[in-house]
Structure formats: C-alpha cells, structure tokens
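Renewal narrative, Specific Aim 1. Our central claim is that a sequence can be written position by position from structural information alone. The example that follows is taken directly from our test logs and has not been curated for this report. It begins with the structure tokens describing the chain, in the order in which they were read.
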C-alpha cells in the first residue's frame, strides 16, 4: 500500500499503508532487480502487463493459471470461517487481544520525531550563538519554520514530515524496517489467498515518492481492484467483496500482532475500513461484528500460512516482482501439501 482505493499502508498517511535478517543501510532504501527463473512463463508476462498498467490482462493471466492443471493453487483458495457475530471472548479463546491489534501506536517514529525536534532546538540554539542572531532574526526564523510546518500539514497532509521520519526510521531502526516489511507481506498474502491480485508494493515513503511522484502517497501495497470499484460506483458492495476488503484491510495489523504482540502501523487501514462501513450504513453493532469476523478470519489464515508469509516477506524486502512473489507463495503452498 494513487487512483486506486484498495491500497493499504503501514504509515499514517493517505488512504489507498518488516524481511528478517541483517541489511545494510543502503539496501533498506534501494530496490534490487527482480531476478530468478519462474516456474510459469505466464508470471513473467504478468509482470510485463502490470508494468504497462494492463490490469485486466494481468488478472486474466492469473485466472487462466488458476484453471491450469497444477497451476496456481493458492489464488482465492483461503478457507474462511462462517460469517456471524463473534464475541470478544471468542477472539480471546483464539489468542487475540483486540486492543493490542486494533489500536496501533507507532512508538518508533514517535521516538524519532522527538529526537528530531530536540535536535532542531539544539541546532537553533547553536546557530544563535555561532551567528550571533538578534531577537528579530530569531523571530523571523521561527515564523518561517512554523509556516513551512503548517504548509506541510495543511496542503501536503504531513507528507514531507512523514517522508523524513519514515526515511530515518528505515535507516536507523531495524525494528521499524522489519515491521513495515511484515505488515505489507500480510496485505499481499491475504489478498492473494482471497483472490485479489496485488499489482505492486512499496516499503518506504521515498520509494513511493519516486514511483508516484507525490508526497501524498505513502508506502503500501496496491491491488487490481477494478471489480471492487465497479461495485462501489454502482452504490452496492456485495457481502463477498466486503468480506475480502475487510480482511485485506486488517491483514497488516494482524501480521504485526502475531509477530510482535501488538500493531504499530496501520491506522490508515482501520480508518479506511471504518469509512467504508459507515458509507454502507452499518450500525456500530454491525461494524463491530464485521471487524471481529475479519480479525479472526485473517489471523487464522495467517497462522495456517505462516511459512508462506515468511518467505514472501523475505522476497519483498529484496524488491522482487509481483510474479516472483506469487511463485514463491505457490512453492511454499506446494511444499506444505
């Protein structure tokens, strides 16, 4: 997780938002070429179609491969629990504490932000002493900084601030980088297993800026979602589509919860889902029921496919293509059968 709705991100930016192991600072921000032989040449063609923006053609390739003997077993194959109202106690019996899962607080970026603020203050004091600024110059400098900060918040939705914090987070915090990768792998895997084709992903705001050319787009996973958009435009979203949307939206948070005991990213994902449910006229009780079902269904699916998520996260951390990621998911599913 620019013009698509179903894009989910780890950060707290615009609606559309870590692999394990040691990595260099440069590799956290640079995307190596996607190499490696794929079992099906059709997946290479899939990557070509996605790179050209031919989403319908790409989806047709996946559907044809799914129907091919020995083809894509995983696409749309997720076993789902019955849709009903689940209680909080039932979720607890399955090892799920909803407060830890559905209340993300990004403590890492919060700490970095406080450090940056302190460094700015110290730098200001140092500049005052070195350049012997008078009170009027200090006032003008402070007003200029305040103006730029307000401009970023109002017109760029905090894009510049988040870009700086996210870049620093990936550079200096392996924990933060790890969470982002795992978060996006959760979105990718759950979408694929539910029959929604991922069309691309970014892991840093800097990468998203390079790809989209906009500060209002945060890192995240995007999907081939024209079928969903067609339903939205008609003003009627089917129960099946809503169930898929709900699970994909919560997949990043659920992945973080399973791996780290709580979620830190994904507030925008929750807001996106909440906005959709409100637009459909859901009462609070019905919203709670939909969210609880989606949480339980997603967590159980992630637990069943933990190995596939692990190898997927590793591939995504290396910047592999969508076709490559699909291939390794299928290989792991074959290994587990």
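The sequence written for that structure reads:
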């Amino acid at each position: 997780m620019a013009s698509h709705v179903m894009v989910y991100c780890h950060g707290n930016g615009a609606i559309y938002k870590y692999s394990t192991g040691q990595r260099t600072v440069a590799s956290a921000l640079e995307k190596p070429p996607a190499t490696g032989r794929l079992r099906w040449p059709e997946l290479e063609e899939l990557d070509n179609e996605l790179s050209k923006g031919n989403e319908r053609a790409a989806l047709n390739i996946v559907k044809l491969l799914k129907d091919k003997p020995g083809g894509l077993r995983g696409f749309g194959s997720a076993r789902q629990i019955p849709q009903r109202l689940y209680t909080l106690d039932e979720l607890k019996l399955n090892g799920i504490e909803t407060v830890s899962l559905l209340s993300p607080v990004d403590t890492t970026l919060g700490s970095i932000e406080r450090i940056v603020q302190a460094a700015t203050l110290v730098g200001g004091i140092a500049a005052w002493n070195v350049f012997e600024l008078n009170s009027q110059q200090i006032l003008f400098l402070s007003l200029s900084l305040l103006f730029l900060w307000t401009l970023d918040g109002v017109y760029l939705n905090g894009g510049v601030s988040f870009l700086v914090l996210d870049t620093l987070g990936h550079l200096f915090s392996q924990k933060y980088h790890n969470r982002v990768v795992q978060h996006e792998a959760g979105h990718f895997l759950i979408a694929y297993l539910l029959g929604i084709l991922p069309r691309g992903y970014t892991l840093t705001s800097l990468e998203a800026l390079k790809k989209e050319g906009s500060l209002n787009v945060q890192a995240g996973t995007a999907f081939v979602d024209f079928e969903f958009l067609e339903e939205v435009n008609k003003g009627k979203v089917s129960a099946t589509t809503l169930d898929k949307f709900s699970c994909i939206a919560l997949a990043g948070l659920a992945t973080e919860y399973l791996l780290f005991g709580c979620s830190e990213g994904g507030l925008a994902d929750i807001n996106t889902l909440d906005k959709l449910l409100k637009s459909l006229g859901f009462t609070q009780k019905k919203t709670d029921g939909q969210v609880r079902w989606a949480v339980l269904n997603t967590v159980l699916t992630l637990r069943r496919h933990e190995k596939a998520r692990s190898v997927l996260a590793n591939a995504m951390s290396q910047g592999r293509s969508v076709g490559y990621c699909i291939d390794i998911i299928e290989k792991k599913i074959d290994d587990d059968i």
